[in-house]
Amino acid sequence: MSSLTEKDRPIVQLLLNTGTCPRCILRFCCVGSQALYRCPYKDLMKDLKEFLKNNQEKEDTVCFDAVDPPCKRIRLERVEEAPDELNHNGVLQQIPSVNNENTTMQNSAVKVCNVCLGILQEFCEADFVKKVCQKVNSADYQFTSFVFSVSLPPQLSVRERAAWLLVKQEMGKLGLPLAKDDIVQLKEAYKWIIHPQLSEELGVPADGKSLFEVSVVFAHPETEEECRFLATACPDCFKPAKNKQSVFTRMAVIKALEKIKEEDFLKHFPSPPSSPKNLCVALEIQCNNGAVFVAGRYNKYSRNLPQTPWIIDGERKLESSVEELISEHLMAEFKADSFNFSSSGREDVDVRTLGNGRPFAIELVNPRRIHFTAEDMKGLQQTINNSSDKIQVRDLQLVTRSAIGRMKEGEEEKTKTYSALIWTDKAIQKEDIAFLDDIKELKLDQKTPLRVLHRRPLAVRCRIIHTMRSEYIDEHHFRLHLKTQAGTYIKEFVHGDFGRTKPNIGSLLNRTADILELDVESVDVDWPPALDN
């Protein structure tokens, strides 16, 4: 059972006199009962008034009915000597006497709290909860739990500091300390109140680890200038950031408040804080689902299809891409805002990917639909495969974010198998290329190819051709099957790239060689797990 004791009486009266709401008063009295904060606002105000009317001895207590145990924040211990009593700028002289009950009753009917600016008043009521839930339900998300986040105006931290200094001074008269951490944080109290209401209305539990987030952004335009004095007092705490509209972020304000001395703070900001005319406003009520990850392997059968959209200087060169042919169906089914495509390497626009295909993963950002069975994924795979003859996907499945890392692990240590159709300027016989079959672990020095120099840094990379197998076709053509280290530029290994790849097929055969066709026959990455499709 949580209670207010006799030592809380002057604090309750002081804060009521200065325009603080009942729930903020409980916070500054370090009351940790969640159930108590959930009591109706009018009942709390009535109970506080009754508490102040009570004339029992100091040892007696007036208890508020609550089921929760006291919060660990209640660490108020008597100290041997009271701290020096400070009267900063005579501010406290303006506060009505704590013994003037008529004044207390008159002033306690506050409109808007001077500390929380209405967050623990209007925005704890059922009407606002229903407004939030209507927004959630209209967004049509699938979710089994939720996490609630709230963004508060930065000036609330300034007002909280002013109120804390006021209460700390009053506690000092009783020989009691009050650390900032002893006070119940505004966000915490708000969530104690709002969580059960949202949970009941939405029909799912609140869970701090949930991937579905409901967020509310509050603002209070009337007092938004109240942080500006901190920029003068602590200029290094406020530095412009590209993605921030204002330098007065909550974290910057908190940092400045930690830095500024109490006496300097009180020179610039009233304690107690003044009562505002208007409530906060809820600028935004937003929903967001954590990303869902889909993985699989794709085959590419076209020699005129890039892996990702081919756009140069804003102009699209080809109408589609592997990425788009797969993602458009996933985006439609998962109802996501956007996506991010990644794969184990990439092939050129004119290269086919055969065999078991190339591993890929797609991150679907803020999906509305997240519940898919194995059968659903199988049906989605079939839909993708029926939509185009240029690609096919297999082993389509849901995976975790951490599992995607396995696709990239040791990427350059993996091997890939290719088939290249090669032309030579001089006539060849079968015996002229037979020696290639005997070459093992051939080391190459590959300078960044000219064709990718615009997007890759200039460097010399050491790559290995593990094995080769030649297949004679005619006097000027043969097919070469290669098993190579991942990251090897096969086209450049064939024609030499004006001597930038050494050795190369041209130098090995002592003639000019060029590549006419290239196929990826296997990407030896054991991920994602094969499915029985």
UniProtKB/TrEMBL annotation:
Protein name from the UniProt record: tRNA pseudouridine synthase Pus10
Residue stretches making up the Pus10-like C-terminal domain: 293-524
Reaction equations catalysed: uridine(54) in tRNA = pseudouridine(54) in tRNA; uridine(55) in tRNA = pseudouridine(55) in tRNA
Keywords: Coiled coil, Cytoplasm, Isomerase, Metal-binding, Mitochondrion, Nucleus, tRNA processing, Zinc
Keyword Metal-binding belongs to the record: yes
Enzyme Commission numbers on file: 5.4.99.25
Subcellular location, record wording: Cytoplasm; Mitochondrion; Nucleus
Higher taxonomy: Eukaryota, Metazoa, Chordata, Craniata, Vertebrata
Transmembrane helix found in the keyword field: no
Family annotation (PANTHER family): TRNA PSEUDOURIDINE SYNTHASE PUS10
One term of GO molecular function: metal ion binding
Annotated NCBIfam families: pseudo_Pus10arc
Ranges where the Pus10 N-terminal eukaryotes domain occurs: 113-287
InterPro entries the UniProt entry points to: PsdUridine_synth_cat_dom_sf (IPR020103), Pus10-like (IPR039894), Pus10-like_C (IPR048741), Pus10_N_euk (IPR048742)
